Amino acid sequence: MIFWKLQVASPHSSDSETQTMMATLLRKLCVCSETASYNNHRPSSEAAASSGSLLESLPSEIVMQIVRLLGPKQAAQLSVVNRKWRSLISDNELWAHFLEVHNPQPWDSVLFSETFLASAYPLLPLPTSVAEIPSVSFKQVYGQRARLPCSVIIDGGSGYCKYGWSTLPCPSWRSATFLEFGNVETPIYTRLRHFFWTIYSRMKAKPSSQPVVVSIPICHYDDTESAKASRRQLKEAIYTALFDMNVPAVCALNQAVLALFAAKQTSGIVVNIGFQVTSVVPILNGKVMRKVGVEVVGLGALKLTGFLREQMQQNNMSFESMYTVRMLKEKLCYVAIDYEAELSKDTQASFEAAGEGWFILKKERFQTGEILFQPRLAGVRAMGLHQAVALCIDHCHSAELTADTNWFKTVVLCGGSACLPGLAERLEKELHALVDPNLSDRITVIPPPYGADTAWFGAKMIGNLSTFPGPWCITKKQFRQKHKTNRIW
Which of 61, 68, 324, 434 shows the smallest number of beta carbons within 10 Å? Predict the structure, then answer.
């Protein structure tokens, strides 16, 4: 797969002073035009003529550099000042530049999402050549994004929930996920209702004021009828709880799919190291391929932290809580590229935990992550992570779902424990050694693009689309009508 980035030329430093002066002149013209428009008459013909003659003598490339200094609002006003500039102001690269400079999201994410996600499902495969890339009007995208409502973004993971506003660079709050609210006997609707009310209360937000994008935890993995019913029940409970709170529109997407979007992919295999288990999820054009099979390994973040705790206890290290152990895992642990070679190295490192002093770890640093590849080290009878991913790749290849035989060769990691340094490199190495040579040539493992918040950023990408909430959301009226129809039948 290829991805690209529009190149925006920068002004020559030697001409910057002249261009700044010209930009000031144009800015004054825009203000004059705006004032005249407000007073219902045209700007002074003398001023327009003198300014126009000066600027028309400049090469279009220089004028374009000057326009970039103005900013989007005043650039749009120039088409009123001079008709000859209308085509120049409508230039797609100019508005791509404005999106890159004036948008809080990374430009490559904006470009990917507006090109491949704006129309929602069905998603098209990513192109293999530049000629196949769909055209996008960035001027239209900029205008639509400027009018977007602020959205609530909720990533309800298997261990911790991240939530915040679509306009902010990262989630502002974290808490236990809804799976931890209440007890197992509490109806799922009640737990969800409590969960969402807690979130809106902490955000001090009115539910009826903005749409919401919420991730659905990866669970009920099978393609059986009972698993389908459980997934449907969970999704409907999410919709019902939110609509009963008068949320105007809801977009609920699988957590693995959102992580894939965050990596700027629509097809691939997502490896989610969750709280209790690790899921290997094949996704084709934004849809989870459950018929191919979701592999599940009985190792998650909890087991990794527990294994490190046991190693520390064996070495007579005392600590006050599991939080301290988890912090040490995040700060000091890593995955060895070659486990046997690492055993003979000096890997000692230390970390100071607030209120508990210094902790020194040695081989525990890489032995903790090693149980993902050798579960027997932790007394767990399960496949290694590389074996589960290799099995999923083999199933994807055998299924022959599409003519593209490379769609499953991009592996994206997500989850907090997937951020262990060296994990992506080790997994890629193991896969190239384990998978049939005819399949392994283009296998690539991508570490979590946004760390533990990867799925949240994928949801944020949807919430910031120029077409949002449009094709991605279901409204309360649509949801009620759908259920009314289902009851009739």
Answer: 61
